[in-house]
Specification:
- The protein has 342 residues and is of the alpha/beta class.
- The chain is built from ten helices and 13 strands.
- It has one domain: TIM Barrel (Alpha-Beta Barrel).
- About 10% of the residues have low confidence.
- β2, α5 and β3 form a beta-alpha-beta unit.
């Protein structure tokens, strides 16, 4: 954590091309090391003991999310939404409340009016949200302000940093800052499940011991010492992303096809889990949609190819849902995290 905090402190002074080159070199070595648990970790495919299944008897859930990191991404939101609408999809756009851009109310109104969802993406997108509990609680007040003002249901931190205990300070239905398996992230402790789960609050009615691998990183002295049964108490839903981020696939690893996505999607579908993807409009090129990654952008045509595949193969089997819909489904059941298999 000290190394990570130091990195984010010095990050503004490190040229972008240097950061990308270093991450690329490290990730290529990591890919060979973790090939048995990425992009697929077989251990994460087991459903929770009390898993209720998906609405309408659907085989699995399919969710699209977007993190808008800068002005470039902000200007591409309408074009990205238009592509998804044309292909029969709706998604969630997560905006940074305080940073290099201000999200126009007209854009939020356009997206929600077209059936898309709005989420809050960190506060400053600087990697410092969890540097101390005091700082987090101060930032949480500001985050909650934007959650209310935007009518948002969900939150995702920058760089997928997470602390499931502290997140109870946020007034949200769900968090989406974790993943089943991803050794390429700054905080690479995956929740080891492709299913969403309920994270009980400290005031919940506790009756069962917490033995979930999904909450290994909750502090041992935390109030989250047990998992509630029933529907009483306070908490939120955790939605891990289960398909590798576009930045990892195309910019870091330099892939020129969507094979990693389609392979993982087929596996998640076969296990009946949650196929949740995070795509950044900042890194998408709509000018040359078929071009391969140049380590700064990738062609939007790759994303379109994947969506076409998903709809063509799973149009009748998948529950194509927004994040808040999946979270509401889990909240009603208060699905406990996957119990440790040993």
């Amino acid at each position: 954590m000290l190394f990570r905090d130091l990195y984010y402190l010095l990050k503004p002074a490190i040229p972008l091309r240097v950061r990308r080159a270093a991450r690329r070199a490290l990730s290529i070595r990591q890919r060979r090391r973790f090939e048995r648990c990425w992009p697929i970790d077989e251990a994460s495919g087991r459903p929770p003991d009390d898993w209720p299944g998906w609405p309408g008897g659907k085989k699995f859930a399919f969710v699209l999310t977007h993190d808008v990191e800068g002005t470039r991404g902000l200007h591409r939101c309408r074009e990205l939404a238009a592509m998804e609408s044309r292909l029969g999809f709706r998604s969630s756009f997560n905006f940074v409340p305080e940073g290099e851009y201000a999200t126009p109310p007209s854009l939020r109104a356009f997206l929600t009016g077209a059936g898309f969802e709005i989420g809050v993406h960190d506060l400053h997108h600087d990697g410092k949200l969890y540097r101390s509990r005091k700082a987090f609680e101060l930032n949480a007040e500001r985050i909650n302000h934007y959650v209310k003002a935007w009518g948002a249901a969900g939150f995702r931190s920058a760089f997928m940093l997470h602390n499931l205990d502290w997140l109870h300070r946020l007034h949200v239905l769900y968090d989406a800052s974790t993943f089943d398996t991803d050794p390429f992230e700054p905080q690479p402790d995956g929740v080891k499940t492709i299913f969403p789960f309920w994270v009980p609050g400290p005031s919940s009615a506790f009756t069962a011991p917490l033995t979930s691998t999904a909450l290994d990183f909750v502090s041992k002295d935390s109030d989250l010492a047990t998992v509630p049964k029933g529907r009483s108490g306070v908490g939120y839903v955790e939605l891990p992303y289960t398909l590798a981020q576009d930045s990892t696939v195309f910019l870091v690893l330099g892939e020129s096809t969507t094979d990693i996505w389609t392979r993982k999607l087929d596996w998640v579908a076969s296990r009946g889990g949650l196929a949740l993807l995070n795509v950044h409009p900042d890194y998408m090129s709509f000018d040359e949609p078929s071009r391969a990654s140049d380590h700064a952008h990738y062609g939007a045509g790759l994303y379109e190819q994947f969506l076409t595949y998903a709809m063509g193969r799973y149009g009748r089997e998948a529950w194509f849902a927004l994040p808040h819909e999946v979270a509401a489904h889990v909240q009603q059941q208060q699905v406990a995290p996957l119990r440790a298999a040993g």
